[in-house]
Protein backbone atom coordinates (compact mmCIF):
# COMPACT_ATOMS: atom_id res chain seq x y z
CA UNK A 1 0.00 0.00 0.00
CA UNK A 2 2.69 2.46 1.01
CA UNK A 3 4.47 1.83 -2.25
CA UNK A 4 1.40 2.70 -4.25
CA UNK A 5 0.94 5.75 -2.12
CA UNK A 6 4.46 6.96 -2.79
CA UNK A 7 4.18 6.59 -6.54
CA UNK A 8 0.98 8.62 -6.33
CA UNK A 9 2.49 11.28 -4.13
CA UNK A 10 5.63 11.91 -6.10
CA UNK A 11 4.05 13.46 -9.20
CA UNK A 12 1.90 15.76 -7.09
CA UNK A 13 4.84 16.94 -5.02
CA UNK A 14 6.92 17.36 -8.17
CA UNK A 15 4.19 19.42 -9.78
CA UNK A 16 4.10 21.69 -6.72
CA UNK A 17 7.90 22.11 -6.79
CA UNK A 18 7.81 22.91 -10.51
CA UNK A 19 5.02 25.43 -9.86
CA UNK A 20 7.19 27.07 -7.19
CA UNK A 21 10.09 27.27 -9.63
CA UNK A 22 7.90 28.74 -12.35
CA UNK A 23 6.77 31.37 -9.89
CA UNK A 24 10.35 32.64 -9.45
CA UNK A 25 11.59 32.32 -13.05
CA UNK A 26 12.55 35.79 -14.23
CA UNK A 27 10.33 37.18 -16.96
CA UNK A 28 10.62 40.32 -19.04
CA UNK A 29 8.90 43.24 -17.37
CA UNK A 30 6.09 43.33 -19.94
CA UNK A 31 5.04 39.73 -19.28
CA UNK A 32 5.81 39.82 -15.57
CA UNK A 33 2.42 41.31 -14.66
CA UNK A 34 0.68 38.42 -16.44
CA UNK A 35 2.59 35.58 -14.79
CA UNK A 36 -0.09 33.02 -13.88
CA UNK A 37 -0.17 32.04 -10.24
CA UNK A 38 1.15 28.53 -10.88
CA UNK A 39 1.19 27.52 -7.24
CA UNK A 40 -2.45 28.43 -6.68
CA UNK A 41 -3.55 26.70 -9.89
CA UNK A 42 -1.66 23.51 -9.04
CA UNK A 43 -3.02 23.41 -5.51
CA UNK A 44 -6.57 24.06 -6.71
CA UNK A 45 -6.33 21.13 -9.12
CA UNK A 46 -5.00 18.64 -6.57
CA UNK A 47 -7.35 19.83 -3.84
CA UNK A 48 -10.25 19.36 -6.24
CA UNK A 49 -9.27 15.85 -7.35
CA UNK A 50 -7.63 14.46 -4.20
CA UNK A 51 -9.19 16.55 -1.40
CA UNK A 52 -8.41 14.01 1.31
CA UNK A 53 -4.66 14.06 0.70
CA UNK A 54 -4.12 17.65 -0.40
CA UNK A 55 -6.18 20.11 1.47
CA UNK A 56 -5.76 23.19 3.65
CA UNK A 57 -2.70 21.79 5.47
CA UNK A 58 -0.72 21.34 2.26
CA UNK A 59 -1.85 24.75 1.07
CA UNK A 60 -0.66 26.36 4.27
CA UNK A 61 2.80 24.78 4.18
CA UNK A 62 3.26 25.64 0.50
CA UNK A 63 1.99 29.15 1.24
CA UNK A 64 4.66 29.68 3.89
CA UNK A 65 7.34 28.53 1.43
CA UNK A 66 5.97 30.98 -1.18
CA UNK A 67 6.08 33.76 1.41
CA UNK A 68 9.73 33.08 2.11
CA UNK A 69 10.65 32.71 -1.56
CA UNK A 70 8.93 35.97 -2.46
CA UNK A 71 9.89 37.86 0.66
CA UNK A 72 6.30 38.78 1.43
CA UNK A 73 4.91 38.93 4.95
CA UNK A 74 5.12 35.51 6.55
CA UNK A 75 1.61 34.06 6.43
CA UNK A 76 0.26 36.17 3.59
CA UNK A 77 0.24 33.56 0.84
CA UNK A 78 -0.38 30.89 3.46
CA UNK A 79 -3.64 32.55 4.49
CA UNK A 80 -4.75 33.32 0.94
CA UNK A 81 -4.01 29.82 -0.38
CA UNK A 82 -5.52 28.21 2.69
CA UNK A 83 -8.78 30.08 2.17
CA UNK A 84 -8.94 29.37 -1.56
CA UNK A 85 -8.24 25.67 -0.98
CA UNK A 86 -10.84 25.57 1.78
CA UNK A 87 -13.46 26.83 -0.66
CA UNK A 88 -12.21 24.41 -3.33
CA UNK A 89 -12.41 21.39 -1.04
CA UNK A 90 -15.79 22.48 0.25
CA UNK A 91 -17.21 22.45 -3.27
CA UNK A 92 -14.98 19.81 -4.83
CA UNK A 93 -17.85 17.47 -5.66
CA UNK A 94 -19.67 20.14 -7.65
CA UNK A 95 -16.43 21.33 -9.25
CA UNK A 96 -15.56 17.87 -10.49
CA UNK A 97 -18.76 17.41 -12.43
CA UNK A 98 -18.76 20.90 -13.90
CA UNK A 99 -18.15 21.12 -17.64
CA UNK A 100 -14.84 22.73 -18.51
CA UNK A 101 -16.29 26.16 -19.22
CA UNK A 102 -18.07 26.32 -15.89
CA UNK A 103 -15.04 24.97 -14.07
CA UNK A 104 -12.85 27.63 -15.68
CA UNK A 105 -15.29 30.30 -14.54
CA UNK A 106 -15.08 28.96 -10.99
CA UNK A 107 -11.29 28.96 -11.17
CA UNK A 108 -11.48 32.59 -12.24
CA UNK A 109 -13.48 33.36 -9.12
CA UNK A 110 -11.06 31.41 -6.92
CA UNK A 111 -8.01 33.18 -8.39
CA UNK A 112 -9.71 36.54 -7.99
CA UNK A 113 -10.40 35.69 -4.36
CA UNK A 114 -6.76 34.73 -3.89
CA UNK A 115 -5.46 37.96 -5.40
CA UNK A 116 -7.97 39.99 -3.45
CA UNK A 117 -6.79 38.45 -0.18
CA UNK A 118 -3.14 39.21 -1.03
CA UNK A 119 -4.10 42.76 -1.96
CA UNK A 120 -6.15 43.18 1.18
CA UNK A 121 -3.40 41.90 3.48
CA UNK A 122 -0.89 44.26 1.82
CA UNK A 123 -3.34 47.10 2.34
CA UNK A 124 -3.85 46.30 6.02
CA UNK A 125 -0.09 46.01 6.52
CA UNK A 126 0.42 49.38 4.82
CA UNK A 127 2.38 48.13 1.80
CA UNK A 128 1.17 49.96 -1.26
CA UNK A 129 1.26 48.76 -4.82
CA UNK A 130 -0.77 49.56 -7.86
CA UNK A 131 -4.05 47.68 -7.77
CA UNK A 132 -3.92 46.99 -11.51
CA UNK A 133 -0.94 44.65 -11.17
CA UNK A 134 -3.06 42.24 -9.16
CA UNK A 135 -5.42 41.38 -12.00
CA UNK A 136 -2.91 40.11 -14.56
CA UNK A 137 -2.37 36.72 -12.87
CA UNK A 138 -6.13 36.20 -12.55
CA UNK A 139 -6.70 36.65 -16.28
CA UNK A 140 -3.69 34.61 -17.38
CA UNK A 141 -4.37 31.90 -14.80
CA UNK A 142 -7.93 31.49 -16.04
CA UNK A 143 -6.77 31.27 -19.65
CA UNK A 144 -4.16 28.65 -18.84
CA UNK A 145 -6.45 26.56 -16.63
CA UNK A 146 -8.02 24.30 -19.34
CA UNK A 147 -4.56 23.31 -20.60
CA UNK A 148 -3.18 22.81 -17.14
CA UNK A 149 -6.07 20.67 -15.96
CA UNK A 150 -5.72 18.49 -19.05
CA UNK A 151 -2.00 18.09 -18.36
CA UNK A 152 -2.61 17.14 -14.73
CA UNK A 153 -5.39 14.75 -15.71
CA UNK A 154 -2.92 13.06 -18.05
CA UNK A 155 -0.37 12.76 -15.25
CA UNK A 156 -2.97 11.30 -12.91
CA UNK A 157 -4.19 8.80 -15.48
CA UNK A 158 -0.68 7.61 -16.26
CA UNK A 159 0.27 7.28 -12.61
CA UNK A 160 -2.82 5.32 -11.77
CA UNK A 161 -2.47 2.96 -14.69
CA UNK A 162 1.14 2.38 -13.66
CA UNK A 163 0.37 1.65 -10.05
CA UNK B 1 -15.73 6.89 -7.78
CA UNK B 2 -12.57 4.89 -7.46
CA UNK B 3 -10.41 7.90 -6.79
CA UNK B 4 -12.42 9.03 -3.82
CA UNK B 5 -12.60 5.58 -2.36
CA UNK B 6 -8.89 4.85 -2.56
CA UNK B 7 -8.23 8.36 -1.37
CA UNK B 8 -10.25 7.74 1.76
CA UNK B 9 -7.81 5.12 2.91
CA UNK B 10 -4.99 7.67 3.00
CA UNK B 11 -6.51 9.78 5.63
CA UNK B 12 -5.99 9.32 9.33
CA UNK B 13 -9.30 8.05 10.77
CA UNK B 14 -9.83 10.90 13.21
CA UNK B 15 -8.38 13.90 11.46
CA UNK B 16 -10.24 17.06 12.52
CA UNK B 17 -12.95 18.40 10.28
CA UNK B 18 -12.05 20.60 7.34
CA UNK B 19 -13.61 23.75 8.75
CA UNK B 20 -11.80 23.38 12.06
CA UNK B 21 -8.45 22.79 10.37
CA UNK B 22 -9.00 25.81 8.17
CA UNK B 23 -9.87 28.03 11.13
CA UNK B 24 -6.78 26.86 13.05
CA UNK B 25 -4.45 27.47 10.09
CA UNK B 26 -6.05 30.82 9.31
CA UNK B 27 -5.59 31.87 12.94
CA UNK B 28 -1.98 30.76 12.80
CA UNK B 29 -1.40 32.71 9.56
CA UNK B 30 -2.91 35.86 11.00
CA UNK B 31 -0.77 35.53 14.13
CA UNK B 32 2.32 35.11 11.96
CA UNK B 33 1.28 38.09 9.83
CA UNK B 34 0.85 40.36 12.82
CA UNK B 35 4.14 39.27 14.41
CA UNK B 36 6.03 39.53 11.12
CA UNK B 37 4.64 42.98 10.38
CA UNK B 38 5.53 44.42 13.79
CA UNK B 39 8.60 42.59 15.06
CA UNK B 40 11.42 40.53 13.67
CA UNK B 41 11.31 37.46 15.87
CA UNK B 42 10.58 35.34 12.85
CA UNK B 43 13.88 35.95 11.07
CA UNK B 44 15.18 32.58 12.24
CA UNK B 45 12.24 30.72 10.74
CA UNK B 46 12.49 32.74 7.54
CA UNK B 47 16.18 31.93 7.28
CA UNK B 48 15.59 28.21 7.84
CA UNK B 49 12.89 27.98 5.17
CA UNK B 50 14.89 30.30 2.93
CA UNK B 51 17.81 27.88 3.00
CA UNK B 52 15.50 25.16 1.69
CA UNK B 53 14.27 27.47 -1.09
CA UNK B 54 17.85 28.26 -2.11
CA UNK B 55 18.26 25.09 -4.27
CA UNK B 56 15.13 26.12 -6.21
CA UNK B 57 16.66 29.52 -6.87
CA UNK B 58 19.91 27.92 -8.01
CA UNK B 59 18.05 25.58 -10.37
CA UNK B 60 16.02 28.46 -11.81
CA UNK B 61 19.15 30.57 -12.17
CA UNK B 62 21.18 27.74 -13.76
CA UNK B 63 19.97 27.83 -17.39
CA UNK B 64 20.38 31.58 -17.57
CA UNK B 65 23.85 31.61 -16.06
CA UNK B 66 24.83 28.67 -18.29
CA UNK B 67 23.66 30.60 -21.34
CA UNK B 68 25.67 33.60 -20.21
CA UNK B 69 28.69 31.35 -19.71
CA UNK B 70 28.31 29.91 -23.21
CA UNK B 71 28.08 33.39 -24.68
CA UNK B 72 31.15 34.44 -22.74
CA UNK B 73 33.27 31.44 -23.68
CA UNK B 74 32.33 31.57 -27.34
CA UNK B 75 33.26 35.22 -27.79
CA UNK B 76 35.75 35.56 -30.59
CA UNK B 77 39.37 36.42 -29.95
CA UNK B 78 38.97 39.63 -31.90
CA UNK B 79 36.11 40.80 -29.70
CA UNK B 80 38.08 39.94 -26.59
CA UNK B 81 41.07 41.90 -27.82
CA UNK B 82 38.91 44.89 -28.62
CA UNK B 83 37.30 44.73 -25.21
CA UNK B 84 40.66 44.27 -23.56
CA UNK B 85 42.16 47.34 -25.17
CA UNK B 86 39.07 49.35 -24.34
CA UNK B 87 39.24 48.26 -20.73
CA UNK B 88 42.95 49.09 -20.58
CA UNK B 89 42.28 52.59 -21.83
CA UNK B 90 39.48 52.94 -19.33
CA UNK B 91 41.69 51.74 -16.51
CA UNK B 92 44.36 54.24 -17.43
CA UNK B 93 41.83 57.04 -17.28
CA UNK B 94 40.36 55.93 -13.96
CA UNK B 95 43.79 55.52 -12.46
CA UNK B 96 44.76 59.01 -13.49
CA UNK B 97 41.56 60.27 -11.92
CA UNK B 98 42.14 58.23 -8.78
CA UNK B 99 45.60 59.70 -8.31
CA UNK B 100 44.00 63.09 -8.15
CA UNK B 101 41.40 61.76 -5.72
CA UNK B 102 44.08 60.30 -3.47
CA UNK B 103 45.64 63.72 -3.14
CA UNK B 104 42.22 65.29 -2.61
CA UNK B 105 41.32 62.73 0.03
CA UNK B 106 44.51 63.41 1.92
CA UNK B 107 43.82 67.12 1.72
CA UNK B 108 40.24 66.61 2.84
CA UNK B 109 41.33 64.57 5.86
CA UNK B 110 43.85 67.25 6.76
CA UNK B 111 41.29 70.03 6.45
CA UNK B 112 38.74 68.10 8.47
CA UNK B 113 41.37 67.57 11.13
CA UNK B 114 41.97 71.33 11.15
CA UNK B 115 38.23 71.86 11.57
CA UNK B 116 38.26 69.20 14.29
CA UNK B 117 35.54 67.27 12.44
CA UNK B 118 35.53 63.50 12.42
CA UNK B 119 37.25 62.16 9.35
CA UNK B 120 35.17 60.02 7.03
CA UNK B 121 35.69 56.35 7.79
CA UNK B 122 36.84 53.90 5.21
CA UNK B 123 34.60 51.11 4.00
CA UNK B 124 34.90 47.62 2.64
CA UNK B 125 33.23 46.73 -0.64
CA UNK B 126 32.41 43.35 -2.07
CA UNK B 127 30.94 42.50 -5.45
CA UNK B 128 27.94 40.22 -5.51
CA UNK B 129 25.85 39.01 -8.37
CA UNK B 130 22.11 39.44 -8.79
CA UNK B 131 20.54 36.03 -9.32
CA UNK B 132 18.15 35.70 -12.24
CA UNK B 133 15.26 35.07 -9.95
CA UNK B 134 12.34 37.34 -9.54
CA UNK B 135 11.11 37.72 -6.03
CA UNK B 136 8.05 39.60 -4.92
CA UNK B 137 6.08 40.56 -8.04
CA UNK B 138 4.50 43.59 -6.40
CA UNK B 139 7.72 45.20 -5.30
CA UNK B 140 11.09 46.12 -6.71
CA UNK B 141 13.11 43.41 -5.06
CA UNK B 142 16.20 41.54 -6.27
CA UNK B 143 17.93 38.42 -4.96
CA UNK B 144 21.72 38.61 -4.56
CA UNK B 145 24.01 35.62 -4.15
CA UNK B 146 25.53 36.59 -0.80
CA UNK B 147 23.99 35.84 2.56
CA UNK B 148 24.69 35.89 6.26
CA UNK B 149 27.51 33.42 5.66
CA UNK B 150 29.35 36.21 3.83
CA UNK B 151 28.57 38.76 6.51
CA UNK B 152 25.67 40.50 4.76
CA UNK B 153 23.47 42.37 7.25
CA UNK B 154 20.02 43.91 7.24
CA UNK B 155 19.90 47.42 5.84
CA UNK B 156 23.24 47.09 4.07
CA UNK B 157 23.72 49.49 1.16
CA UNK B 158 23.98 48.16 -2.40
CA UNK B 159 25.61 50.33 -5.07
CA UNK B 160 26.75 49.77 -8.62
CA UNK B 161 29.39 51.53 -10.66
CA UNK B 162 27.22 54.57 -11.29
CA UNK B 163 25.19 55.00 -8.12
CA UNK B 164 23.08 53.66 -5.30
CA UNK B 165 20.95 50.62 -6.19
CA UNK B 166 19.16 49.82 -2.95
CA UNK B 167 19.54 48.13 0.37
CA UNK B 168 19.32 44.64 1.82
CA UNK B 169 15.99 43.86 3.47
CA UNK B 170 16.08 40.14 4.10
CA UNK B 171 19.24 38.16 4.77
CA UNK B 172 19.24 34.44 4.13
CA UNK B 173 22.08 32.02 4.69
CA UNK B 174 23.31 31.90 1.09
CA UNK B 175 21.31 34.60 -0.63
CA UNK B 176 19.62 37.82 0.39
CA UNK B 177 16.89 40.06 -0.90
CA UNK B 178 17.47 43.70 -1.57
CA UNK B 179 14.92 46.44 -2.17
CA UNK B 180 15.65 48.88 -4.98
CA UNK B 181 15.47 52.63 -4.43
CA UNK B 182 12.64 52.77 -6.99
CA UNK B 183 10.29 50.71 -4.80
CA UNK B 184 7.34 52.87 -3.68
CA UNK B 185 8.03 51.91 -0.07
CA UNK B 186 11.65 52.98 -0.17
CA UNK B 187 12.90 56.41 0.82
CA UNK B 188 16.45 57.57 1.29
CA UNK B 189 17.97 60.76 2.63
CA UNK B 190 19.84 62.65 -0.08
CA UNK B 191 21.45 66.02 -0.51
CA UNK B 192 21.97 68.19 -3.55
CA UNK B 193 25.63 67.95 -4.40
CA UNK B 194 25.79 71.59 -5.55
CA UNK B 195 24.60 73.27 -2.36
CA UNK B 196 24.07 70.62 0.30
CA UNK B 197 20.26 71.01 0.36
CA UNK B 198 18.94 67.97 2.18
CA UNK B 199 15.76 66.11 1.32
CA UNK B 200 14.27 62.64 0.91
CA UNK B 201 14.12 60.70 -2.37
CA UNK B 202 11.14 58.35 -2.53
CA UNK B 203 10.71 55.51 -5.00
CA UNK B 204 7.90 55.82 -7.52
CA UNK B 205 7.38 52.22 -8.60
CA UNK B 206 8.98 53.13 -11.92
CA UNK B 207 12.59 52.02 -12.44
CA UNK B 208 13.53 55.28 -14.14
CA UNK B 209 12.06 57.80 -11.72
CA UNK B 210 12.42 58.92 -8.11
CA UNK B 211 10.30 61.57 -6.44
CA UNK B 212 11.37 64.33 -4.09
CA UNK B 213 8.07 65.27 -2.48
CA UNK B 214 9.33 67.32 0.47
CA UNK B 215 10.91 70.34 -1.19
CA UNK B 216 9.26 73.73 -0.68
CA UNK B 217 8.53 75.85 -3.73
CA UNK B 218 11.41 78.20 -3.05
CA UNK B 219 14.00 75.46 -2.60
CA UNK B 220 17.20 75.98 -4.54
CA UNK B 221 17.05 73.00 -6.87
CA UNK B 222 17.25 72.88 -10.65
CA UNK B 223 17.20 70.39 -13.47
CA UNK B 224 20.47 68.51 -13.78
CA UNK B 225 21.41 68.77 -10.11
CA UNK B 226 23.18 65.68 -8.82
CA UNK B 227 21.70 64.11 -5.69
CA UNK B 228 24.09 62.19 -3.45
CA UNK B 229 23.45 60.21 -0.28
CA UNK B 230 23.68 62.41 2.76
CA UNK B 231 24.48 59.58 5.14
CA UNK B 232 21.92 60.93 7.61
CA UNK B 233 19.65 57.90 7.60
CA UNK B 234 22.47 55.73 8.84
CA UNK B 235 21.89 53.02 6.23
CA UNK B 236 23.85 54.52 3.36
CA UNK B 237 27.36 55.89 3.61
CA UNK B 238 27.55 59.54 2.57
CA UNK B 239 28.55 60.75 -0.85
CA UNK B 240 27.32 58.11 -3.29
CA UNK B 241 25.47 59.47 -6.32
CA UNK B 242 21.77 58.62 -6.29
CA UNK B 243 20.01 60.45 -9.09
CA UNK B 244 19.98 63.47 -11.35
CA UNK B 245 17.08 65.91 -11.09
CA UNK B 246 14.94 65.52 -14.16
CA UNK B 247 12.18 68.07 -13.75
CA UNK B 248 11.17 70.74 -11.27
CA UNK B 249 7.59 72.00 -11.38
CA UNK B 250 6.73 74.88 -9.11
CA UNK B 251 3.03 75.51 -8.72
CA UNK B 252 2.32 78.57 -6.54
CA UNK B 253 -0.92 77.00 -5.33
CA UNK B 254 0.90 74.04 -3.83
CA UNK B 255 3.10 74.21 -0.75
CA UNK B 256 5.66 71.81 -2.20
CA UNK B 257 7.38 71.74 -5.55
CA UNK B 258 7.00 68.53 -7.51
CA UNK B 259 10.47 67.31 -8.33
CA UNK B 260 11.39 64.10 -10.09
CA UNK B 261 14.83 62.61 -10.61
CA UNK B 262 16.35 59.85 -12.73
CA UNK B 263 18.34 57.24 -10.79
CA UNK B 264 22.05 57.22 -11.59
CA UNK B 265 22.16 53.43 -11.59
CA UNK B 266 20.32 51.50 -14.31
CA UNK B 267 18.10 49.78 -11.80
CA UNK B 268 16.41 47.28 -14.08
CA UNK B 269 19.54 46.09 -15.84
CA UNK B 270 22.22 45.78 -13.19
CA UNK B 271 23.86 42.39 -13.02
CA UNK B 272 26.35 42.99 -10.25
CA UNK B 273 26.00 45.11 -7.19
CA UNK B 274 28.57 46.09 -4.60
CA UNK B 275 27.73 45.57 -0.96
CA UNK B 276 29.25 48.09 1.42
CA UNK B 277 30.52 47.44 4.92
CA UNK B 278 31.01 50.92 6.37
CA UNK B 279 33.60 51.51 9.05
CA UNK B 280 35.59 48.42 8.24
CA UNK B 281 39.15 48.51 6.96
CA UNK B 282 39.32 47.83 3.28
CA UNK B 283 40.61 44.63 1.78
CA UNK B 284 40.08 42.34 4.78
CA UNK B 285 41.97 39.08 4.61
CA UNK B 286 38.79 37.02 4.85
CA UNK B 287 37.38 38.09 1.52
CA UNK B 288 40.37 37.86 -0.71
CA UNK B 289 38.68 35.75 -3.36
CA UNK B 290 35.83 38.01 -4.35
CA UNK B 291 37.51 41.33 -3.83
CA UNK B 292 37.27 42.08 -7.50
CA UNK B 293 37.58 45.81 -7.25
CA UNK B 294 41.27 46.11 -6.41
CA UNK B 295 42.68 43.43 -8.67
CA UNK B 296 44.11 45.80 -11.22
CA UNK B 297 45.66 48.64 -9.29
CA UNK B 298 49.26 47.55 -9.70
CA UNK B 299 49.89 48.44 -6.09
CA UNK B 300 50.95 52.01 -6.69
CA UNK B 301 47.92 53.84 -5.43
CA UNK B 302 47.22 51.62 -2.46
CA UNK B 303 43.91 49.95 -1.72
CA UNK B 304 42.43 53.07 -0.19
CA UNK B 305 42.54 54.98 -3.42
CA UNK B 306 41.82 52.00 -5.61
CA UNK B 307 38.48 50.91 -4.25
CA UNK B 308 36.47 53.56 -2.66
CA UNK B 309 36.79 56.98 -1.34
CA UNK B 310 34.02 58.64 0.52
CA UNK B 311 33.64 61.81 -1.43
Major β-sheet profile of chain B: 6 strands, antiparallel
Secondary-structure-derived class of chain B: alpha+beta
Name of the CATH homologous superfamily of the domain at 123-279 in chain B:
Rod shape-determining protein MreC, domain 1
**Secondary structure: helix percent of chain B:** 25-40%
Judging by the overall fold, what is the CATH architecture of the domain at 123-279 in chain B? Beta Barrel
Specify the overall morphology of chain B: globular
Structural commentary:
The complex is a heterodimer of chains A (163) and B (311). In chain A, 79% of the residues lie in helices and 0% in strands. Chain A is an all-alpha fold. Chain A has a single domain, classed as Arp2/3 complex 21 kDa subunit ARPC3 (Orthogonal Bundle), CATH 1.10.1760. The mean pLDDT of chain A is 85. Chain B has helices spanning 2-8, 18-38, 43-73, 77-114, 302-307; strands at residues 123-129, 141-144, 157-159, 164-171, 176-180, 187-192, 198-203, 210-216, 226-229, 241-249, 256-263, 272-278. Chain B is α+β, with helices and mostly antiparallel strands. Chain B is globular. The longest helix of chain B has 38 residues, at 77-114. In chain B, the strands form 2 sheets. A 6-stranded antiparallel sheet of chain B has the order 1-12-3-4-5-2, with no helix packed on it. The N and C termini of chain B lie far apart (74 Å). Chain B has a domain at 123-279: Thrombin, subunit H (Beta Barrel), CATH 2.40.10. Chain B is built from 5 helices and 12 strands. At the A-B interface, helix 1, helix 4, helix 5 and helix 7 of A face helix 1, helix 2 and helix 3 of B.
Amino acid sequence: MSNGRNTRRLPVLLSIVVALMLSIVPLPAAVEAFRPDWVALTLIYWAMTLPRSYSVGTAWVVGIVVDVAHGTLLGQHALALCFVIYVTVKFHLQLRVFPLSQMTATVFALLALHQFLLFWINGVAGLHTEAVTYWGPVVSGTLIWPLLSMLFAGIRYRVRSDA
Amino acid sequence: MAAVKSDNQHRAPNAPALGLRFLLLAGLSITLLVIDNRENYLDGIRKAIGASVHPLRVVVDAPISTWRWIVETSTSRNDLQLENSRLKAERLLTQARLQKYAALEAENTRLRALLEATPHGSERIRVSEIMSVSANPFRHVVVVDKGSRDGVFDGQAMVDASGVVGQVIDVGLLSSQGILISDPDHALPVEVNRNGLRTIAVGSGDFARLELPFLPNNADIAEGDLLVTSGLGGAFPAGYPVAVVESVTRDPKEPFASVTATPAAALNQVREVMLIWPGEPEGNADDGDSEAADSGTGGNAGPAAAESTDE
